[in-house]
Amino acid sequence: MHNHPLEKVLEDRIAIIDGAMGTTIRTYGMTESDIRADRFQHATKDLLNNGDLFSLTQPKMIGDIHRRFLEAGADIIETNTFGATSIAQSEFFVEDPRERGGRKDPEFYQKIIEDKELRQLAWEINETSARQCREWADRVAGETGRARFVAGAIGPLTVSLSNSPDADDPGFRVVTFDQVKTAYAEQVRALIAGGSDLLLVETIFDSLNAKAALVAIREVFDEDGLSASGRELPVMISAAVGRGGETLISAQTTEAFWTAVRHVKPLSVGLNCSLGPELMYPFLSELSAKADVAISCYPNAGLPNPLSPTGFDLGPEDMARWLKSFAGEGMINIAGGCCGNTPEHIAAIARALEGVHPRELRERTRRTGGEHEVSA
Asked: Long-range contacts made by residues 23-30, C-beta under 8 angstroms, separation at least 24?
């Protein structure tokens, strides 16, 4: 794989990634009928929390959000696909068997991943969202003369491979590794088809789910001939951590998480979401010391606060101050915001980090002719 243009950016400065799609959507005052439009008007469950559908039913709003984040200074914008797998979408379109005394189990999820309509819906959300991002990234890049990048957002799913939901049967899993991998592979192919530059496995609270996503990516690259042709997309990996620095469900420490994913040779590894920048700091510091790739950091805007306009405590200047302090300690290469961060937050972060030296990349790993080599 030839060096990606984003790698050059990361050598020169701290790259900015966008903020929270869900938080920003809420500022538009959308209703249940807005998300349904004509297409989903007969859906039997509430859809308003299924924000990925807005890419299909309210594309102008989603495009406006991408535009605002780009104009705020984002180098990297994420596709609106956090829950765009057949497995995650099934929560909104398939009757829950538990309501009739049944249970969700591998047999149930096998039907989900074989459901033609759900698969088509997941594909359409991913490809459409990637195209929307691509269009705006290219437009703003053309206007400003600065390259912008589309990150295909791959979220953590609504099911866990690490934990049993049944206290009496700790070995039980609702879903299998192969089922999760299949759902992720479909998402990855659609994100690539829509024109993504990067693949971002993010908000990881279950490392085994993330492993399934990463295996899916590897298999897609190999099966679709992207490896042989040198057209693999760089992979970014970002975990969510709890108060003890552990991935929330699989309870790996920050260092153990890095050890579990480093073989992927990602473009970056980092932390996002979580409990806000203050509580993230020690874990980011540890990851920055241990990892030999770029470090990304896009925290929530503090802790949830229903009385705040964004639903979170920290305003734009607060987030800018925190991320500038992380940068000042030489800890980050990519910075932005997760829940509670609007385009105004990203603009403040971008201003604060302008001209601040990025974390030194001690060694950069690259692929050449199928061999791995490390260059200083």
From this structure: 23/310, 23/311, 23/312, 23/339, 23/340, 23/341, 23/342, 24/65, 24/68, 24/69, 24/342, 24/343, 25/51, 25/54, 25/61, 25/65, 26/310, 26/311, 27/310, 27/342, 28/61, 30/54, 30/58, 30/61
* pLDDT (tens digit per residue) in 75-107: 999 999 999 999 999 999 999 999 999 999 999
Residue 368's contacts (CB-CB under 8 Å, 6 or more residues apart) are none
Q: Phi and psi for 148 in degrees, rounded to 5? A: -125, 150
Q: How far, in Å, are 37, 39, 134 from residue 43 at the CA level? A: 11, 9, 30
87: nearest Cα among 116, 118, 56: 118
Give tens-digit pLDDT for 36-71: 999 999 999 999 999 999 999 999 999 999 999 999
pTM of this structure: 0.93
Complete domains list, the chain, with CATH: 5-375 (3.20.20.330)
b/e map 260-298, b = 16+ CB within 10 Å? bbbebbbbbbbbbbbbbbebbbebbebbbeebebbbbbb
Separation CA 297–CA 295 (nearest Å): 7
Tokens matching residue 300:
């929530």
